[in-house]
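I need you to check the entry underneath: sequence plus fold tokens. Let me know what the token row says about the fold.

>
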Amino acid sequence: MVNLDIDNPNLSEVTIFISDLHLCASRPQITESFLGFLETQAKSAHALYILGDLFEYWAGDDDIEDAFNKQIIQGFKSLAASGVLIYLMHGNRDFLITDKFCKASSIHLISDPTLINLYGNTALLSHGDELCTDDVAYQQFRLQVRSKQWQSEFLSQPLQARKNQIETIRLRSEQEKSSKSAQIMDVNQDAVISLLKEYHYPDLLIHGHTHRPNRHPVTVDGKLMTRWVLGDWYEQGSYLICDASGCKSVNLNSH
């Protein structure tokens, strides 16, 4: 287990989990909401975990000088300078983020999944897309684009060519999703159970990706656990806040 930052917490500390922001220049209201969140709610936290899909897409770390990306980087730098630890996990949209972006943003990149000690409870963190095993076509695509060979060939192209290619993939993906059932795009319960067993029955599983915020009790081999699903920021603007007394889902619009 990785004791990242909260093995011996102060009782007043809180830890915040978010995912699926899908930040991009064409959604200025979401960007404004997120930067405001970094300046307010996030500054009350000891640590902020971003469990994937921070950006709508990420074409490579050579894009950090883009004006839109620079404002996000500055927001993170300001938050980190205030003393908040920031952890980022790759999602299915931003898996090409590497050390250059993280160093510029004062962010720590963590693997998927990652097991942490959360105020005395074991918490397994994941983006969640690998649990959607019923979507066979997506899993095949995921395997392809996560390979070192594919990434090396993709990143060797000019930045604008990469962005154009991503836009084409995104449009095709949106078209394909319209013909898929909601069940196929949700997590597979057998995959969830298998992951929980692999990590020795953690108290909590926290993930995003499905955009279906909820709290699910899960019992495996007589052991009761809780699966927290994080919401996206298109409509929900929700995040999970945890302290020594437990976790609760909060809607940004309620603050």
Observations:
- The first strand starts at residue 15 and ends at 18.
